[in-house]
Amino acid sequence: MKYKYQLIxxxxxxxxxxxxxxxxxxxxxxxxLPKEIIKIITxxxxxxxxxxxxxxxxxxxxxxDGNFKxxxxxxxxxxxxxxxxPVFFNDSSFSKEIPKxxxxxxxxxxxVTELNRIVNIILESFELLRxxxxxxxxxxxxxxxxxxxxxxxxLEAHNFDVFLDTHSIGKGEPFQDELWHxxxxxxxxxxxxxxxxxxxxxxxxxxxxxxxxxxxxVQLVWPNxxxxxxxTSHLSYPQQMFESDFIDDxxxxxxxxxxxxxxxxxxxxxxxxxxARNLAARQDNLITEFxxxxxxHGRTITVQPEKFLTEDLKxxxxxxxxxxxxxxxxxxxxxxxxxxxxxxxxxxxxxxxxDDLRIRDKWLKHLEWLNENFKKDIKTLKKQxxxxxxxxx
Length: 393
Hints:
The protein folds into three domains: 121 residues, 3-Layer(aba) Sandwich (Rossmann fold); 143 residues, Rossmann fold (3-Layer(aba) Sandwich); 96 residues, no CATH class. The two termini are 28 Å apart. The protein contains 13 helices and 15 strands.
């Protein structure tokens, strides 16, 4: 493996450190990546193992008594530009448990319910998960508006970019086009499966669209709703809700029903988990579709362990294809350039392959403009052009 992601563990020797590592390895395997892609470096091994030219991220575990370790290592990493996540343990104790040198770093309080979130932050830092954390809420207004708004606010508080139709579409925008566009770019869908959900034409459409885009769904099945008789029962991650999950057991009032705090926390945990698993599935599907088309044209495409594709051409040239989930951004091109340099590739063409289904025309035109004006040979390649591009290049 040409390069590895360096995870540096600093600070107190606490038991939760192993919990985080175990979950991290599990999620890496869920992403279909070899666990060897991550190199774990402890503070005592930094001098011998740490490479400044490799992607790195550090976690600093605080001390409840203020006995700080590895402050000099943290200082070195900050000078190198390495991001450090401070982890503290007690309410309002950041400044007591974390050394001053890390006061400018945004920390997180460790709780079991935050385990998935911490692991996802690590994966995002290495761009093994998208940094953008986009969630789409699908619901029937006259059955679950109050819960939809409650989840919108809770997910936003956990740094998700949440789409809710009543809050997220600007005035004058074409409502349905923007709704499909935003669903295309999301990582997961929270579907409030109330008894009359499928009686709505647009709810049916949203469900069908999610299937077409193969987006992971956290399905919240309302109390007393016979989901077995519902055509949505085959969705990936159903969670049966009970009256006891709702404040005062009120679950059927669209204006006043609210979930209990602990129920909301469990839902957010599941969204974090589904988001990571779904990314792997969508990448695999995009890779498979591209390779199948390439095979028809006699092209030899190799899947690398890091989940990108390479093709060696005559004259020593190489093409790198990077599967991109959602809507590519200019930052995606910059990340591709960094990855190319880390791999040591010289004479190489890079294409960010993506599924353009339901992306708005104005955005597709913007991506074409980027292709025409970006000086480096790093461009986007949409799915509907896979065939013609492989024929012509």
